[in-house]
Design a protein that fits this description.
Largest sheet: 6 strands, antiparallel
Order of helices and strands: HEEEEHEEHH
Shape: globular
Number of helices: 4
CATH class: Alpha Beta
Protein name: DNA-binding protein
Number of strands: 6
GO molecular function: DNA binding
Strand content: 25-35%
Keywords: DNA-binding
Radius of gyration: 13 Å
Strand order of the largest sheet: 1-2-3-4-6-5
Organism: Streptomyces swartbergensis
CATH architecture: Alpha-Beta Complex
InterPro entries: YjbR (IPR007351), YjbR-like_sf (IPR038056), YjbR/MT2646/Rv2570-like (IPR058532)
Structural class: alpha+beta
Length: about 120
């Protein structure tokens, strides 16, 4: 996955926006003001921090050692850092991004969830 593909995929979700609250180099993708993905798009290798169910986070780290690790500078229980341009299939990276988005949306107030075009 390229940085352009990562950005485009993150922005393809309903109400997703890109913000730069930490520095101009760090892209923060949010839905209704809540972070679901964070990446330094110019870094090599390309990595993205994604929210994850705690049980799935541990399983994924075991299955993809070195490519999925505890979230850098994040709550290690709920966040993973995923190497997006390495040995992981793009399909899996996209699934993990979508799962992160869905987890964040599930935690939004009901009124915000109803404004989204998600089933």
């Amino acid at each position: 996955m390229t940085p352009q593909e990562l950005r485009a995929f993150c922005l393809s979700f309903d109400a997703a926006v890109e913000d730069f609250p930490f520095s101009p180099e760090i892209s923060v993708f949010k839905v209704r003001g809540k972070l679901f993905a964070l990446s330094h798009l110019d870094a090599r290798p390309l990595k993205v921090n994604l929210k994850c169910d705690p049980d799935d986070a541990i399983r994924l780290r075991g299955e993809h050692e070195g490519l999925i690790v505890p979230g850098w500078h994040m709550n290690k229980r709920h966040w993973n850092t995923v190497t997006a341009d390495g040995g992981l299939p793009d399909r899996l990276v996209k699934e993990l991004i979508e799962d992160s988005y869905d987890l964040v949306v599930a935690g939004l107030p009901r009124a915000d969830r109803l404004r989204l075009d998600r089933p």
